Amino acid sequence: MVVIHICSLMFILYPVYEDIRTQKIRIFPGLCLIAAGVLARAAVGDISGAVWLLGGLPGVLSFLIGKLFGGCIGGGDSFLIGGIGLLEGVCFCWRMLAVSGGFILAFSVGMMAAGKLRRKSKVPGTPFLVLGYLGAWLL
After folding, report:
1. How far apart are CA 30 and CA 7, in angstroms?
2. Which residues lie below 8 Å from residue 86, measured CB to CB, with a gap of 6+?
3. CA distance 105 to 48
4. Which of 85, 113, 87, 112 lies closest to 100 in space, CA to CA?
5. pLDDT tier at 55 (50, 70, 90 boundaries)?
6. Run of H or E residues at 47
């Protein structure tokens, strides 16, 4: 089980720098980490069909919401959310999203009040997902 947690931590940390600089997330390293985590889960015998696949549901929902509302959630962020759901489980993923949402709300309100952020500004979501990931572990 430790291997799965290491894979999920590396999965959420690898795109932070690139997302802040270019707002792009490379998919291939993430797919390799997801595959390693799934293989580790299969080696332990912890894959139970549909329950395991439900972990990807938050990523699919965030992708659809992002497309529906004009790109408010990027495809790379949705990929990260879905990958964490597959690696750690759907309950952990929802906790991570709740903590991330709180941080994004506080940051956005503070930066808008300070005049540094406009209504149509784009903010990289990966750093907030990392904070949400850490917060979900503490919950």
Report:
1. 9
2. 34, 37, 38, 52, 53, 55, 56, 59
3. 35
4. 85
5. confident
6. none
Q: How confident is the model at residue 79 (pLDDT cuts 50, 70, 90)?
A: very high
pLDDT tier, 20 (very low <50, low <70, confident <90, very high otherwise): confident
Collapsing DSSP to helix, strand or coil, 1 comes out as coil
Integer angstrom CA distances of residue 82 from 8, 28, 63:
11, 15, 9
Burial of 16 (0-12, 13-18, 19+ CB in 10 A): middle
Task: Give the C-alpha separation, 119 to 65, whole Å.
Answer: 18
Tokens 């792009």 correspond to 24
